[in-house]
Amino acid sequence: MRKVAIVGAGQSRYGEFPDKSIKELFLEAYQDMAKSVDRNFEPKRIGAAYIGNLGCGGFQLGNMSALVSEYVGLPYIHAMRIENACASGGYALATAAMDVMAGVHDVVLAGGVEKMTDVSGLKTKYWLGVSGDTEYERLAGTTFSGLYALIAQRHMHEFGTTREHLSMVAVKNHKNGAQNPKAQFQRETTLEKAMKAPMVAAPLNLFDCCSTTDGASAVLVTSAEKAKEFTDTPIYIEGFGTASDYLAIHDRAATTTLEGTRRAAEQAYKMAGIGPKDIQLAEVHDCFTIAELLAYEDLGFCEKGKAGPYIAEGHTEISGDKPVNASGGLKAKGHPIGATGTGQAYEMFHQLRGSVQKPTRQVKGVERGLLHNVGGSGGTVVVTVLAR
Amino acid sequence: MVLGISGYGVAVPRLRIKREDYAKAWGSFSAAGVNEKAVAGFDEDMLTLATKVGQRALDSVPLKPDKITRFAFASTTPPYTEKLLSGTILAGLGAPGETYTTDHTSSTRAGTEALLAGFEHLTGNPGGNALVAAADAPQASMWDAIEHGMGAGAAGFVLSGFALLAEFEGSSSVVSEHFGERFRPRDEQVTRDLNVKKFSEGSFVSNTTKAASALLKKLGRKPEDYAHVVIQQPDARAPASAAGKLGFQDPQLAAGMVSANLGDLGAASTPVGLAAALEASQVGDRILVVSYGSGAGSDALSFKVISDRKPAFTVSKETARKEYIDYVQYLKLKGAIR
Amino acid sequence: MAHVSVPMYWRTIPQRYRLVGLQCKKCGKVNFPPKGVCKYCNASSEFTEVRLSGRGKVHTFTLIGAGGAPPEFAEQEKAGGVYPVTIVELDEGPKVIGQMADVNPKDVKIGMPVRAELRRIYEEEGVVRYGFKFVPLEGGA
After folding, report:
1. What pLDDT score does B249 carry?
2. Mean pLDDT for the stretch of residues C29-54
3. What's the confidence (pLDDT) of residue C125?
4. Which domain holds residue B67?
5. C74: domain range?
6. Quick check: B79 and C128 CB within 8 A?
7. Which of A331, B247, C27, C132, CA to CA, is 20 to 30 A from B190?
8. In Å, how far is B160's CA from the nearest CA of chain C?
9. Burial (CB count within 10 angstroms: exposed 0-12, middle 13-18, buried 19+), residue B164
């Protein structure tokens, strides 16, 4: 099978944009991506588009892939919407990679778009709550904050993880996001503020939870061979892994492990021929602060149960030996559900090429990075290893 | 064959509000003799309470749900005015669908109507088991004095010919036409009362005393034969005039005076009162139960206690399980503040 | 609204009202909520229906505030305040999520014994959806 590379990446600003629909947002990302391709970018070379999207704000249930691809000037191509809740973007990238690996298409667009702030508060809560097990988890009175809170509570009980550990994630990611012009939130916060925020689903408070976001992202995927036509510094997809888990948390073997992350990471490392210690930078799925702590463990950065001390020791700061979420993560950069996964790829593309917009965020000398994208409370997970 | 009560169970919602909190809000509290009352939780209704006491009554015998041959449900405040209510309860209990069930609503006499329906069934099916569940939480407008005493509670009974706690000695019933006292037209959600006091009291006293004296006469009993008398309690003072006319003394009313701590329990008033009297009784005690439903009618039932076996879920156990709320919280729960 | 249709809700009444689980004929483990294939041995679709006792222990919990409540429970949260949601490890083995009732939120603890009780879950299209919630065990049998 062919090796695969990313030769261009773009995204819109993440935030709240009442004047932009999914079409305009996707166009912004697409044009940003086109600009980032060093040479020979031609829309008509794109043979397929895999677009991650959960809800479109509820207005376009079917065929949204056709809607946005023709809007950006890509009519008639193989267009598909990819939906795996918040992992849609990551799965769009994995699907694009599989397409190119199999030799079906040579140049493929992988991206995502989400419009979350158009709908009323009540409708938003509907959309946000139905990717868990609706019959039981939703009707027990939870949305995702509640589900991750159940995990956090158990993690604190089993391993002594503290309230402070959770807030450290928020502080770090807001500090990083403040350096990211594309981030939804560009202000730092303090540990005290993060710890004292109003409770949403105990123990998770407002600062433990990512926000709703509008945004779009897009990357251009091609074979390693063809990549040379577009750039001298393609970023290779060295490996990826995809796995699912029992949808309801109560059906899982362990409440404090995302088995989907563990298995997807194992596959990705195996395909790339590496281990967790070879990862120099990671973009992980911190929809809630506890989710980032779980990621440290389930991706193999530290032992199960030790994520609290791991962040407290500073390993995952930009200046640390295992920087995580230099972009600001979902927490500060934002989480436009369908777009998040390829937005992580956008960040890593620029980190690996040394072209991050603000030099203070640039992680020096990074050769290999990991993307971790989770659907909902872990029902689907995709892990991708990118390298220079 | 001798029929009677072979088991019972009581359930009272956990929340309570005190008379003082009403007085703080309104300047006074209108339900005589009521110190505090029970308040149904947001996720409770008369079907969940009936299922709860139905299960508790079965467990107290113990009896498996598939042995039920008759079911009767009583409430003036069921969650639907039209929907077969017993179906939900039987599904909750796991009792067979091939059971004759009746839903009794329309007045606070419904509780004893359901008991009598159970005994009626057993007369033709002496080997059977009738399950009766009465659950009620009357409602009135926040602005009305009758609202003050309205509480919430439920009691369930297994009636049969075996393993009896108390024998059923007989009953008498009376109906009359009275209107304008405690009523609720079809398109309204809350109970009203035109407050023609003497007139309504007249109906209460005349119906209850007629039913009770007819029963005493039928059975050849005198007032002093009864250790406990349970009379319908819209508040704790209403039974007094009927009791006085019939020749009963205050101590006979004491055990069954559940409204003092639970409030006006509507169709569950005499069933819960009966459970309280059974709890307080000794072998040989007789209990008289006199219900009242406005509009109007009354059932009188006589029991004789023959066992001192007590079930797990009694009135005193349920009364002791409580948490207080204040008047604002009460209004939020009752939906008055939207 | 959760958009769980009437027939869809109705089909789960044995689970919601009576906690009916499926005991695998091959490995003997109890699947609750039900699965098409036994999730423990992954080898059998043959089950015996078994009504669970409803008793168990709190495995983990959270307290849902206004920001965390889905629309179906928004009014409940407004009227009654923060409510606990738990994953209970039932005596018969399976774990299941369920809301708690009749308990002070600050008293909920991992390991607390609980039992299931029928409650109103929510209302959709005018139809009341009933189901189990968990209450503290010492409150009753």
Report:
1. 96
2. 97
3. 87
4. 4-166+311-334
5. 54-139
6. yes
7. C132
8. 23
9. buried
Q: Give how far A53 is from chain C: nearest CA, Å.
A: 20
State yes or no: is A157 an active-site residue: no
Within this chain, do residues B9 and B147 fall inside the same structural domain, yes or no?
Answer: yes
Helix (H) / strand (E) containing A157: helix A144-159
Write the residue in B42, B92, B332 that is nearest to C118 by C-beta.
B92
Q: Would residue C30 count as lying in a domain?
A: no
Token pair in block for residue C115: 């039992």
C42 inside domain: no
Mean pLDDT (chain A, rounded):
96
Report helix angle A163-177 to A289-298, nearest 10: 100
Q: Average pLDDT of C53-65?
A: 98
d(CA A55, CA A114): 7
Chain C hits for A126, Cβ within 8 Å: 1-3, 70-71
Kindly report the average pLDDT of chain C as a whole number. 94
What's C118's domain CATH number? Answer: 2.40.50.840
Q: How many residues can be counted in chain A?
A: 388
Sole residue written with tokens 């109970």: B191
Distance to chain C for A55, nearest Cα, Å:
15
Domain extent at residue A157: 132-212+237-387
User: Percent of chain A having pLDDT more than 90?
Assistant: 92
In sequence order, what are the residues at sequence separation of 6 or more whose Cβ sits closer than 8 angstroms to the Cβ of residue A221? A4, A5, A6, A7, A93, A96, A97, A99, A100, A107, A108, A109, A110, A237
Q: Greatest CA span in chain B, whole angstroms?
A: 56
Tens digit of pLDDT for each residue in B35-50? 999 999 999 999 999 9
Q: How many CA atoms lie within 13 A of B225 on its CB side?
A: 15
Q: A335 an active-site residue?
A: yes
What does pTM read for this prediction? 0.93
Compute the mean pLDDT over every residue in chain B, rounded to the nearest whole number: 96
> Which pLDDT score is estimated for B336?
66
CB B65 within 8 A of CB B94: yes
Lowest mean pLDDT among A166-170, A258-262, B102-106, B176-180: B176-180
Q: pLDDT digit string (tens) for B136-163?
A: 999 999 999 999 999 999 999 999 999 9
Neighbouring residues of A113: CB distance < 8 A, sequence distance ≥ 6: A22, A25, A26, A29, A51, A52, A53, A68, A215, A216, A217, A336, A338, A339
Choose the catalytic residue: A105, A155, A285, A335: A335
- Whether the per-residue pLDDT at A50 is higher than 70: the answer is yes
Instruction: Search chain B and give the residue with CA nearest C18.
Output: B92
Tokens representing residue B298 in the block: 């009354």
Strand-pairing partners, residue B191, are: B140
Q: What is the pLDDT of residue B337?
A: 57
Q: At residue C138, does pLDDT exceed 80?
A: no
Token digits of residue A365: 């000398």
* Residues B137 and B220 both lie in one domain: no
User: Domain with B150 in it: what CATH number?
Assistant: 3.40.47.10
CA separation for the pair A318, A360 (Å, rounded): 9
| Residue-level pLDDT at A328 | 98
Q: Do B52 and C118 touch (CB under 8 A)?
A: yes
Q: How many Cβ contacts (< 8 angstroms) between chains A and C?
A: 123
Residue B233 · residue B37 · CB < 8 Å: no
Contacting subunits of A (3+ beta carbon pairs below 8 A) = C
- Start-to-end Cα distance in chain A: 19
CA distance A370 to A270: 13
Neighbors of chain C by Cβ distance (3+ pairs < 8 Å): A, B
